[in-house]
Amino acid sequence: xxxxxxxxxxxxxxxxxxxxxxxxxxxxxxxxxxxxxxxxxxxxxxxxxxxxxxxxxxxxxxxxxxxxxxxxxxxxxxxxxxxxxxxxxxxxxxxxxxxxxxxxxxxxxxxxxxxxxxxxxxxxxxxxxxxxxxxxxxxxxxxxxxxxxxxxxxxxxxxxxxxxxxxxxxxxxxxxxxxxxxxxxxxxxxxxxxxxxxxxxxxxxxxxxxxxxxxxxxxxxxxxxxxxxxxxxxxxxxxxxxxxxxxxxxxxxxxxxxxxxxxxxxxxxxxxxxxxxxxxxxxxxx
Length: 286
Fold this sequence. Notes:
eleven-stranded mixed sheet
């Protein structure tokens, strides 16, 4: 593992995944969003640690030139995949779960992302539950997201998070955001009004032996008419035989295209805003 000197010496660090860069946006846009997320973390008073696998190393704190290598050819790395990518010298883009696995090894306690993986619609057909959930439950890290990915079964994911003992905090909201939409999600376990309150709650949870926490931050602009497009995208994915880790990039591309770019603009904004809030919570925890 290669950790930059700046990150080693920093007191407030925020981890950022690379799957968003490689697979979450059209070619070229991902790097731009990744760099904007890093700037947002710095503006909040913390140090960004964008994580990926390059040339046989887990890199914590990728440079801009290294970020530019992460394109659609990169492997998506969950917790099970990081070691294989290192040994096989593959270009590996970390998911939320893969990033959390590295956070656990590197001692990083804060992360910003777009949406959390979870229970897929129609479970147990397909029998698909994201490794993000177990990784979050077993890692003392605060993950800031706009809730659960919109293509998933959000109520089922919320129930599983409760089973795993993961606090789901609403940032100035009483319900879990639905990624693109600020409304209609299940109730959160607690509401917090500030970054400082979220940091204090996290410290108390960890002192009691708890694992990770999810902070759900609603998007600034709520797109409340996206659900029919999501349903159409999932039907198209099934028709085209898209499975596993390929579903999310397929659905995102479908939504960006069929919404006339509205979901793409919303996705860019919420990813950067979540990184900023993660930075504020990290700085408040110092």
